[in-house]
Amino acid sequence: MLLMSACSEEATNTQEPASTDSGKPMASAAATAASTVGDGKMTDVGTPRNQTLIVDILSGKTADPDLVNPYVPGAVPMDAGFHQLIFSSLWEINTEKGEQIPDLAATFPEPLDNTNTKFKFKLQEGLAWSDGVEFTADDVVYTSDMIIKTKELGYSGYYASLVKSMKALDKYTIEVETVNPETRLAQKLGVVIWGTAFRVMPKHIWEKEDPTKFKFKDPVGLGPYTLKSRDPQGNWFLYEKRKDWQKSDIGKIVGEPGAQYILFKFFGPEEKRIIASIQHDMDILQDITPESWDVLRQKNKTALAWYENFPYADMNDPCERGMSFNASKAPYNNKDVRWAMALMTDIKNVSLATFGGMLRVSPIQLPPISVLQEKYHKPMLGWLKDFQLSDGYKPFDESYATDMVEMLKQQGIKGLPTDTKEAVNTFGVGWYKYDPAEAGKLLEKAGFKKQGDKWLKPDGTPWKVTINAPANFEVQSMRLAFAVADSWKKNGIDANVQQMDGATFWDSESTGAFEVGSYWPACGLLPDSTANFQGWHKQYIVDNGKQAPGNRNRWANDKVSSLIDELASMQSSDPKVISHITEINKEFVKGMPFIPMFGTSKFVPVDTYYWTGFQTSKNAFEGPWWWWSQFKYYTPHFKPTGK
Question: Where is the sequence biased in composition, kind Polar residues (predicted)?
Answer without folding.
Answer: 10-22
